[in-house]
Fold this sequence. Notes:
By secondary structure, the protein is of the alpha+beta class. Helices cover 27% and strands 26% of the residues. A four-stranded mixed sheet has the order 10-11-15-14. Strands 1-9-8 form a three-stranded mixed sheet. A two-stranded antiparallel ribbon has the order 2-7.
Amino acid sequence: MSKRDYYEVLGVKKDASAAELKKAYRRVAMKHHPDRNPDDKDAEDKFKEASEAYEVLSDEQKRAAYDQYGHSGVEGMGGMGGGGQGFGSFSDIFGDVFGDIFGGGGRGGRGGPSRGSDLRYTLDLTLEEAVKGTEVKIKVPTLVGCKTCGGNGAKPGTSASTCTTCGGHGQVRMQQGFFSVQQTCPNCRGKGKTIGDPCRDCHGQGRVEETKTLSVKVPAGVDTGDRIRLAGEGEAGADGGPAGDLYVQVHVKDHEFFQRDGRNLYCEVPISIFDACLGGELEVPTLDGRVKLKVPAETQTGKMFRLRGKGVVSVRGGAAGDLMCRVVLETPVNLSKRQKELLEELKASMKGQKNSPKQDSWFEGMKNFFGDLKM
Ligand SMILES: [Zn+2]
Ligand SMILES: [Zn+2]
């Protein structure tokens, strides 16, 4: 069975960059993914073909071998095993391709300079801080370049020497049946260098653990789930590789009065039976202090009032949302004898009047309900 050229499979030029490859693979894989094309053998084959092509071309060493020797140059290399490979779900694939965000970081285990891991930090904010923006200092345990050895891992005054097993290539060729297979050098584990006298502070790792203090500018309007990226503030790279990024994950704490939903704020305001009956002015909290809320006579409990523009401006801009106040009737407590008498009087005065239309219709409904059952 003849195989198609990997570049052709992904529809890219021979000199395509890593980003172009990733984009091309994403496009092809999305189109032919089995989840989207159930029971379509052709799509499944195309999907596998694209995955295989991307697996090879996204790996510098495999790509070089492929460019030089074609398909036979990469046969039997690390995990490829020639066909028969299954497919994961969307998230598996794209988690692998695009998700080098949390943990893992660069290319582990392949030796040579690799990018440091990205870090995640959860930042707890009050609602006020999130809405108005703030600047906070955070302490992040991370890996930084070792100052003693300058990150090369060798004891000061000494230096790393070229690996004698692989001659500095980091790769060795081994004969496996008919094929000559390239493998990571077992002596230097792909670094191409060995350290005779390791730095004492980092034990030859070139990186040390340190708790970094960072200042984070939190823009106004952020909400739980938003994240702030601090480029280059993740872990230091290995062997001189670039540092990873730090992602500050925003978490807004519960507020005494307000619940936030996007741009809108919600709060509950107690109302006395007198204000509810006669109408009145309530004092309600906003994030900028108190404001007056006029309620009309005969306001029922649970009624929602909207205060326009007293909500939140999103970090993405636009107009401020609204503050939604739900009034909740409060039954008076600690009544004196006289007050109880007045209420009795009031109650008597209401006899036979239509003061509680909802209650009346509710009782009517209940009568019918039980009446039907008894019959
Ligand atoms: Zn060191
Ligand atoms: Zn070596």
